Amino acid sequence: MTPQRLKGKVSPSLLHFGRRFRRFREAKGWSQDNLACRARNGQGVTPQYIGAVETGRTRCTLDFAQEMDGLLEVNGELLALWEDLVKDATFPTWYEWLPIEDTAEELTSWNLALVHGLLQTPGYAEAQLMGDKKKTEERLARQRILSRENPPPPGCTFLIDEGVLLREVGNPQVMREQCDHLIEAPKALGVSVHIVKMRGEHPGNVSSFTIATMEDMREIAYCECPARGFTLEAADELVALRRALREVRALALPVDQSLDLIRKVQAERWT
Fold it and tell me: Of 71, 57, 67, 59, which Cα lies nearest the Cα of 27?
């Protein structure tokens, strides 16, 4: 499923916090790059993350706000704003996933029915999207995060149900090309690809999902349903997803065995 690009859905409270944050930064005469390199006790974050906070596209943690308050020398004003505007702010369920995916430090994905959009070939994407050229182009454009240089790509782990390899999308040629891409992805893109043998009793059979770990170590999940995708970051909801992810990981083959299985399915089914 393609994450929807819905406009005007940024939380007003997060947007207000971000604007005040930007004014504090500008009052110091610092660019986003200047502030980013000072964050996390000098370990730094990306300027894109600072930009996401300033535009209300992400919600920073209390620890991050406290550190920024000190760096910007605003004497507790930013902390007070965080308490008033950020602490209880929630993203609507339709909150756009793409800025999260773009600014994540790590992405861990469980793929139950289809190859993840970041790993789909043009032919596979177009077939899955019923020939919609615009949606196909948007999906393929998302894949640039895996090959960009600045900021570095997120660390990506793709856990793929064995049934995904057996489910025909398009035609056998499309599936052959998709298998080739999965085989090449670990070396070409630096991602981890693990095949999970089909089992009917683990909790991952309910839905595909992706968990994004942000630069401030906060986690946000993206889940799919027939109508659309939606985001989750409530602690109790994430606990359930982490539990499902642990069980799926326990069933996953190592990368080398996963690639061998992809080659085997490709040779036996898609030739």
Answer: 71
pTM tops 0.90: no
Of the two residues 102 and 76, the one the predictor is more confident about is 76
Q: Which of 63, 4, 54 is nearest to 30 (CA)?
A: 54
Alpha helices, DSSP H, located in 106-147: 122-128, 133-142
- Asked if the peptide bond before residue 92 counts as cis, ω within 30 degrees of 0, the response is no
On whether the CB atoms of residues 109 and 209 are closer than 8 A, the answer is yes
Return the SS3 of 251.
Answer: helix
Residue 83's Cβ-side half-sphere holds a number of Cα atoms within 13 Å equal to 7
Pairing of β 192-196 and β 155-161: parallel
Token couple for 71: 């760096």
Residue 134 and residue 140: Cα distance in Å, rounded? 10
* Residue burial 68-98, b: 16+ Cβ < 10 Å; e: rest: bbebbebeeebbebbeebbeebebeeebbbb
DSSP structure class, residue 250: H
Report pLDDT digits (tens) over 212-234: 998 778 888 998 766 567 788 77
DSSP secondary structure code for residue 41 in this structure: T
Rg of the chain in Å (alpha carbons): 20
Q: List Cβ<8 Å contacts ≥24 apart for 219-228.
A: 220/100, 222/3, 222/97, 222/100, 222/101, 224/1, 228/1, 228/4, 228/94
Cα 196 to its chain centre, rounded Å, is: 20
Cβ atoms of 237 and 220 within 8 Å: the answer is no
